[in-house]
Write a structure and sequence with these properties.
By secondary structure, the chain is mainly β. It contains four helices and 18 strands. It has two domains: 215 residues, Lipoprotein localisation LolA/LolB/LppX (outer membrane lipoprotein receptor (LolB), chain A); 104 residues, MucB/RseB, C-terminal domain (Phosphorylase Kinase, domain 1, 2-Layer Sandwich), CATH 3.30.200.100. The strands form two sheets. The protein has an eleven-stranded antiparallel β-sheet with strand order 6-7-8-9-10-1-2-3-4-5-11, with helices on one face. A seven-stranded antiparallel β-sheet has the order 12-13-14-15-18-17-16, covered by helices on one side.
């Protein structure tokens, strides 16, 4: 089995939402206001301290998690742990990211499949206009005892999902998000059930009671004795869906042969592309696989296996994989 698929289950723990430069709606004022609120959210999530319990629902399964996020003169410290189900715990600080996952045997850090539950939006991206989305601002709700305002993000085509974000009225902190398919049907959602800020935070909760030896440090590219190259990809899709472009690339070569990883993003949605050498005797099931809110598509070309994974519609990963096959075949 591909090393990619041995680790895909980890996506249930770390959900990546990479927010984007968002195009204008039919109402320019709404778009500008929504951009301003997203900027507030980005600042708030990185610079403010908060604490609370949230529920994450996907595929009929519900997880309850507790998070404490502190920002002070020492930097950022964050602890997140499961309230229900198998014990899961994640600590982020100046030393890096460490976790305990009782129900998973493998851990991988990937720019698409293993980021935070909560979005990180570069301020420099918000001001751009090139986007495959429309923005709408409006609506209020009461969430975890707080008044929240809604920002909706709708795709302009079939290649990406949409999102609703609910932001705390005074600070812009994210209290709820919903991932929506092309029929506006919820695929996943996260919502706080209790929430505290500032002096109301219990500082003791950032300290873990778990055995330090039980934590596993997050790593990228686990191939042993492999060399990593930052050069241009050897293969690239002959054509990409509108708005997507290469954002990162790594090539490893080791005892198991070539392993190349590219990330393509429109700023909000992101897709990982893996090209790896496969053993002649290994059987690969080609086609679409749904992995929670992620879709994956596998194709083979000669002795190479091409895997495309992302929190995007199936048509997106299939399109990119087929274009990669053309690129490989032409080499």
């Amino acid at each position: 089995m591909s090393p990619v698929f041995r680790n895909i289950v980890f996506r249930n723990i770390f959900l990546s939402l990479l927010l984007a430069s968002l195009g204008g709606t039919a109402f320019a004022g709404d778009s500008a206001k929504a951009r301003a609120w997203l900027e507030r959210m980005t600042t708030a999530m990185s610079q403010l301290s908060y604490q609370g319990t949230f529920v994450y629902a996907r595929d009929g399964a519900i997880e309850t998690m507790r998070i404490t996020h502190l920002t002070d003169e020492t930097g950022v410290r964050e602890r997140m742990y499961s309230v229900s189900g198998p014990h899961r715990e994640v600590i982020r600080d100046r030393k890096g990211v460490r976790c305990i996952l009782e129900d998973y045997s493998a851990v991988v850090e990937d720019q698409v499949l293993a980021s935070s539950y909560f979005p990180e939006l570069p301020l420099s991206v918000i001001d751009g206009d090139a986007s495959g989305y429309q923005l709408e601002f409006g609506g209020t709700a009461r969430i975890a005892g707080q008044t929240a305002r809604r920002v909706s993000i709708s795709p302009n085509d079939k290649f990406r999902y949409g999102y609703d974000f609910w932001l705390e009225e005074q600070t812009g902190l994210l209290l709820k998000w919903v991932l929506l398919d092309d029929r506006h049907k919820p695929l996943a959602k996260l919502m706080f059930t209790d929430f505290a800020m500032g002096s109301a935070i219990d500082l003791d909760e950032v300290e873990s009671s778990s055995d330090p030896q039980a934590f596993v440090e997050m790593k990228t590219f686990g191939l042993k004795k492999a060399s990593v190259s930052q050069s241009k990809p050897r293969w690239q899709p002959a054509k990409l869906p509108p708005g997507f472009q290469l954002t990162s690339h790594n090539r490893t070569s080791g005892a198991d042969g070539l392993y190349e990883h590219m990330v393509y993003s429109d700023g909000l949605a992101a897709v990982s592309v893996y090209v790896e050498q496969r053993h002649a005797e290994s059987a690969v099931k080609q086609g679409i696989n749904q992995l929670g809110t992620n879709n994956a598509y596998i194709r083979t070309q000669g002795d190479l296996q091409i895997t495309v994974i992302g929190e995007v519609p199936a048509v997106t990963v299939k399109s990119i994989a087929n274009e990669m096959v053309r690129s490989v075949a032409a080499d």
